[in-house]
Amino acid sequence: MAIKYVLPNRYSLNHSGIGGGMGDILTCLDNHLDRKVIIKILKDGEEERRLLDEQKALLKLRSKHVVQLYDLIDLQVGGKTKKGIVLEYIDGHDIKYDAKEKLNDTLKNLWQISCGLSDIHSAGVIHRDIKPNNIRTNIDGIIKILDFGLARSSGTEAFTHSVIGTLGYMAPELWKRKNISFDQMIDVYAFGVVALDLLGIEKPDELYEQPPMPITNIDSLEKILPKDLATIFNSCLDYDKAKRPKMSLVRDLIAKHLLKDRHRALFVLNSKKYEINSKNRNVTITWGGSGSMQIFYNGFDFLVLKITGSATINNKTVVVNKKFPNCSVITLINGKSRTFVTFDISRPEVIS
User: Fold this and answer.
1) Residues near 240 by Cβ (< 8 Å), separated by ≥ 6?
2) What are the pLDDT digits (tens) for 240-259?
């Protein structure tokens, strides 16, 4: 016998789907805004109130890389009133390893995931079930984190009495026998496992032990990634949660490598325009009888490589290996005379 669903007038049922972590899933039409939405019906029981509280926390969250929660509603299911949450409909597919994908494209996907997790953590929420099946790519290539059925607010009450999650993605601290306390570092651990998935690296057997065993180092990461990226991905899987990095640090480091060799610096001296970029990494400027400064672009930052004579950057004495800030004024000093040079850096952003 088919179940009868009675929705608020604003929504029309397209079709019902399979059950999920929180309950039944309905694909519907928002009649007011003429858009598809997903309605998840919460399961009965004592967990319903907690789930509602956690979903309300997500109402405040606005992130390009997290599924958007639109509304909380009451609906009739087989004549019984139940709670439902209205979510953004994502037309796409779950993330997965693609052997044909370029490394930079994979890193961009991991950057999007790290952006979503950083936003989730900034909102004071712990996802608790990060894995490929809960992360989707829409038709525009935008990655979204889904399924907050196990989510909790971070803080002193973030604990559980049983082991909940997905084997292989669960941090070691989740395997205690009772009163399991946890924090956002369990999402960082799961992200580290997802990174192995997307990079096509075979996951260590230690991840599937119950509880997981310590992993000293995954050498495969160092073979395909720059050293600092391999190090931070390895640290995501550290047995000691205190040694795992915040997702914002992971996000920023991935972004740094995605933007390698894309910066430009411009300045004008003696009516001559200079540009430093990946094709012209070295520029030497001279002044007075013996003053000179060599500026070098290493793909990430603009540095003073050599300096003779006297000069300042933003009124601070120039020293070798000094990094230029985004906007600065170079003062070239020749006895009592001063020449001022504006040094502007164009720093691109990662666009998803």
Assistant:
1) none
2) 999 999 999 999 999 999 99
Helix, strand counts (H, E) of the chain:
6, 22
Instruction: Please report which helix (H) or strand (E) contains residue 75, including its range.
Output: strand 69-77
Using alpha carbons, select from 133, 233, 239 the residue that is nearest to residue 186.
239
Q: What range defines the domain where residue 183 resides? A: 92-258
Same domain, 245 and 277: no
Quick one: pLDDT at residue 157?
Answer: 45
Residue 31 belongs to a domain with what CATH number?
A: 3.30.200.20
Q: How confident is the model at residue 18 (pLDDT cuts 50, 70, 90)?
A: low
Residue 104 and residue 169 share a domain: yes
Residues near 1 by beta carbon (within 8 Å), at least 6 away in sequence = none
Are 221 and 296 part of one and the same domain? no
Both 237 and 329 in one domain: the answer is no
For residue 86, give the 3-state DSSP assignment: strand
pTM of the model: 0.88
